Each structure stands twice: as C-alpha cells, then as structure tokens.
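Allow me, if you will, to draw on your knowledge of protein folds for a short while. I have a record of one protein: its chain in single-letter code and its fold written as discrete structure tokens. Kindly check, if you would, that the fold set down in the tokens agrees with what the sequence suggests. Thank you for your consideration; the sequence and its tokens are set out here:
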Amino acid sequence: MSESHLTQLFIDGEWRPGGNGETFAVVDPSDFSEIAQFAVATEEDCIAAVDAAEHAFEDWALTAPRERGELLRSAFEIMRQEREEIADTIVRENGKAFADALTEVDYANEFFRWFSEEAVRISGDYRLSPRGDKRILVSREPIGVSLLVTPWNFPAAMATRKIGPALAAGCPIVLKPARETPLTAAHIVGILERAGVPRGVVNLVTPVPTGPAVSTMLHMPAVRKLSFTGSTEVGRLLLHEAADTVVSSSMELGGNAPLLVLEGADLDSAIEGALVAKMRNGGSACTAANRFYVHRSLHDEFVDRLSRALDGYRVGPGRDRGNDLGALVSRGERDKVAQLVERAVDDGARIVRGGGAAQDGAFYEPTVVVDVPHGSEINRTEIFGPVAAVVAFDDVDEAVRMANDTEYGLISYVFGEEREAMRVAHRLDAGMVGVNRGVLSDPAAPFGGMKQSGLGREGGSEGILEFMEEKYIGLPV
C-alpha cells in the first residue's frame, strides 16, 4: 500500500479520493502543525460503501468460520510487526504519549487475536420441545452490514474492538473513524487488505460533516447494525436515527467513573491504581477515574501522595519517548478541561497541584483539585483530561450514594480491604468494577455500561453476539 493510500477512502476493495476531491487537515495537537490532508467522503461515497458491503455480505457470511478466523489472525500478525509504526501515527494525530500509544496498539491487536479464535466457537442449540412434538433448532447468523463509528481517544482499539467481532461473525463493515484520527483507521484497514479481506467486506469513509452522511447510511435498508463509541449526547441522537429503520444498536457511551478509597485501603495500592486509572491516556478515556471519593481519615495523605507522584510526570510531545503525558487531541479539548477546573475553583474547590494549560500545544498539566462540592459541574462532567477531583466522605453508605449519583454507569473503582471492597462493588451502578486495581479492560471480558453509558457489550464471548441474530427452526420429531 502506497503512502498516499493512507489518506484515501477504501470502498469496494479500492483506495480512492473522495467524490468531490475535497480534503480535510489532520493536525498534530502537540504543535498544531498539519501532518496530512485526508479525503472527504461525499454522501455518494458513503452510499457506495454500504452498497459494496451489501454485495459482499452473502459470500462473506457463507465463508467458513475457520477462514474468517485465519484472516483475523493474519491481520494480528501484520499488526504485531508494525506496532511501533502504528503507535507513531497515533502519537502524531492524537497527541498522546508514545508509551500510551504503544500500549493501545498491543491492546487493539488482541481483539484481532481474540475474535480470530471466537469465529469458530459460535454456538447454537438443539433440543426436544417440552411437549415432545418437535425438535427446536436455534442457530446464530450474521446480522448483516454493520456501520462502525469510532472516536478519537483510542483510534486503534475502538476500531479493532468492533471490526474483530463483526468480521468473525460474518458481517461486512463500513468504518467511520473520528475526523481527528483517520490515519490510524486507514492503517488498520490497509492491514486487513493485506491480510486478504475480500472485496467489499471492509470499507472506510470519512464524511465531513459527519451527521448527515451517517443518517443517510442508517436509513439504507442494507444496514442492520450500528456500533457506536462516543458521547452519550451523540449516542442519543443516533438511537433516534436507528429507530426509523429499527437498526440493532450497540452503544459504548460516556462515563463518569468514581474511584472510592475506603477506610481500610492500602494507600500504596490506592495511589498506584489511582495514577493509572486517571492518567492512562492522559485521562482521555471513558474508563478514566473522574471522581475521587476518599475516606476522610485518608484524604490528606492520599492527596499529598498523589500530588507528589504527579510531580514526577513529564509533559510534552508524545514523540519524545521520555514524556509521560502528551497533548490532548485539540485546542478545544484542552480549553474544555481548563474551563472545568476554573469553574470548579469558582464553586469553592482548591487546586493543590497543576492547573495550567500550555499555549504552544494542547497540553494540560496533571492536576489535583480538592474541596470539590459533590454535584458540582466538574463532578457531573466527564473531564477527559489529567484532572483528579477529590471529595472526602465519612461513611461507606455516603460514598456509595455519591458514586451512584450520576446518569452514567460505565465503570467504577474501589480500593479497600477485599471483603468490604467486594461488598461495595456489588452496590455500585456500573457495568464494570475494578477492585484494588486501576486497569480493567481486557479483550476476554465483556466491556459495557449501565444506565446512560450504553447498550450491549464488546469483547469477551458476548462481543460477537452483538453482530448475530438468532434463528429458530422447528423440526419434526
């Protein structure tokens, strides 16, 4: 694949410019320099991508599961060889530190390996009816053309977490990556092309603006699945759109993760877990710890130790491999974080560490804010930056009440004596709970949330079922 193809659409097995020849700029957020011009997909390009996927559907669905699995395994091997090159692309267009980018690539690639193995383990059922008058046969079949819409914060992982199960299930796809990070998506699509994906099975489009084109695709009868990762606000809009044609929808939406430090917690473990839960990916993660609820007896020491640990973090361009935190994805995202902190101070909070934004790049210092009133804006908002907002509590019931006081329910973290931490974990309204650990995501586990954090699950044995439908056939005895 030539270098120019990394900035083009991929439709029906061909790399091509957009239909009107227009492009948009891809920018390095560490210095706001332009790194590429990427093709704009017209509405006609998007329609062509869906048509190509529809034409490829029958043959791909009938392809042997082993063959589909081997293709994903080949993609895994190619991606493993190119991990540093992909990480460098992520750093350039997303801004994150190189170590974070490399970790993401390895995590992303595990979805290709995991679903290469799941492709041959799609189960069904066969049994005698209770009345004994028929045999009940239940098969699982690919749902159809799948529209995958991915965000900028994990441009590789959010793509493979959807592509892997869709292809393993037998579904052709149209991938619509975030405008900020199309180069990573193009590289992954190029890997699938080299791995031997048949014509039309994988398609890549980058419409600008996004909304009208996605709406057009969702209203095409061929599209039977929408898998979206992004904000709850956009997710609500897409669910309305999907309702018009009753498109099956999987939604991995916003989070507002609480991290609870109980009275019996080991502070060494809590600090270690808090650092990774908050600062991984520079805080730009739906799984990032957003609200820190610390027992009053541990509060001051926790804040002091967390602040001192952050003093050792180096902030700067992600391409400098000595830096721990890179840039946020854009000037706008940096400014949102800065404004949240400023308004928290106006509400009575106090900055004990950090609080500064750079002018020559989308950088924001690792920041710790205390005396945060529960229910304040910074407590209600997904920060998406390296800011820890700390609230003291006096008893477990109060901590659980505050942790659950949100429309979101993606993930929570609890640090404490194991039995008490487990009791608290069962009381938290979250689809995932980390007990005495700050990283939870695993391709072998179901990823997803409760309440307005989404619908469905990605990863695990559950992930492939999102791209399948059950068919019941009644047979004579």
Q: What stands out?
A: The longest helix spans residues 98-118.
